[in-house]
Request: fold
Amino acid sequence: MRILLLNPNTSADLTDKLAAQARGFAKPDTNFIARTAAFGARHIGSRTAFAIAGHAAVDLAARWFAEGEPPADAAILACFGDPGLEALREICPFPVLGLADAAIAAACARHRRFAIVTGGAAWVPMLMEQAGRLGVGERLASIRTLAATGIAIGNEPERFLDPLAEAARACVEVDGADVVILGGAGLVGFPARLASRLPFPLIDCLEVAVQQAELHPSTAPGDYAKVETIGLGPALERLLAGDRSD
Reply:
């Protein structure tokens, strides 16, 4: 199985870390093709950066199609918040999983109320809106944030283990959550490191995205109308004009 791993921010180091983590979560015969956005923010932590990242994610997929690689079976959009997810689902001829979408689906399938711990206060209203769009707003107990960005947390894991554990514990003991999602590409791998400290379940957003991608591969063609554009990258302009090289 081949899974396309799309990082819609411009941190190539984060892409490499995510690819390594994804391989650890996957079945032995699953391969990952990791790609980093060609433009945009290094860290996605605002509505403006989020909007740019959606464009970058679609452009990234178009660039991959233009490379003429063998077809993928699924793709994972490696940003919690899922910028550009629905657009990717429109243009890709295989399932596309978002980190937040996959984690929230897993939480709601197994538990009554969930909470999210992530980096950056600006994510609170954005993630609340996403839960509402998914129809699970009433099951969201809380969103607690650390001041540091997800990338900063991931770069200094030992420094942030205690603050993450404290925030997750408050989600359960104060806010009434049954399960806590550690949300953010930079927080991938932390649930396993914190599991022995906390007496309640934690969800790793990349782990569940990989599991869902492996469970439901498909090669159904994307369904989108041709779009006349100007000023976009050449690969994206060709794709939107109906030229898919795969």
